[in-house]
Amino acid sequence: MAAACTGNDEPVQGYGQINLSLGNTVNPEIEVSTRAYQILTTDEAKDYWIEVLQNGKSVLEPTNYLNFMNTNPIFPSGEGYAVAAQSCTEEEAQTANGGAGQVRYTGTSDAFAIAVSSTSDVTVSCTMANAKVSIVYDEEFTKYFTDYKVTVYEASNESRKIEFDANGKYTPSQGGSAYDAVFFNIDQDPTLKCEISGTYKGILRKAGTTVNLEAAKWYKLKVKISPSGHIDLNIGVDNTVTDTEVDVEVNPYV
After folding, report:
1. For residue 131, with 0-12 CB atoms within 10 Å meaning exposed, 13-18 middle and 19 or more buried, which class applies?
2. Given pLDDT bands bounded at 50, 70 and 90, which one contains residue 225?
3. Model-level pTM greater than 0.90?
């Protein structure tokens, strides 16, 4: 029952608790298509944020996973509950690591009910919610071009431009560690602009392309010279379901 009665017949709301487990796809930033699944340990889940919803409305604002588990909050009995989890906020996913960002996992449980004086077992399956981008230069390209670099940014957020150097590394403007890859959130306009520039025989040459980002995919931009002498910018999507390549050519002789 959702309510009990006191001696004066006034209804009293019953309460229950949630026993929460978090799970992730295994290494989705490396193999996003396998969808292998594992339950996270307390240490692995300690930085997650948990929100409890009922019929789409928040009944517990985002709180740290450890705090949620330690306080073991109670909720009014009823239907239509769900638990949402995220490993970090959208802002953190793009500002962490000096602006390189980090992988972000999100998930929402199936709807469940909370009964009086009982505990509801709930598992939230989280998947990678953003996209990963990296650069590699073909050996032949590096023989003929100098001072080359690749700049990537979202069309909807040109203030965040990421520049990969000749080693395929991104180094934050404030210094520190260099990163092999960066992360982008998937917003209403998930268009990624890619611009390459390099010097060939003393002349600066440029190429560019755009690609529509999707969550849980690793976009590998490979820069190379085609047999015709053009620059090819290949965009490879790292998953076993779909492989996409986009070639952008610039004639260095023009």
Report:
1. buried
2. confident
3. no
Asked if 199 and 146 touch (Cβ cutoff 8 Å), the reply is: yes
> What backbone phi and psi angles, to 5 degrees, belong to 249?
-115, 140
| pLDDT tens digit sequence for 189-219 | 899 999 989 998 898 988 888 889 998 888 8
Tokens of 52: 């409890």
DSSP lists the bridge partners of residue 172 as none
pLDDT tens by residue, 93-121:
999 999 999 999 999 999 999 998 888 88
Positive or negative CA dihedral for 43, 105, 65, 114? negative
Which long-range contacts link 188-193 to residues 24+ away (Cβ below 8 Å)? Answer: 188/156, 189/154, 189/155, 189/156, 190/131, 190/154, 190/214, 191/154, 191/155, 191/156, 192/131, 192/133, 192/152, 192/153, 192/154, 192/155, 192/219, 193/152, 193/153, 193/154, 193/155
Q: Are 32 and 89 in contact (CB under 8 A)?
A: no
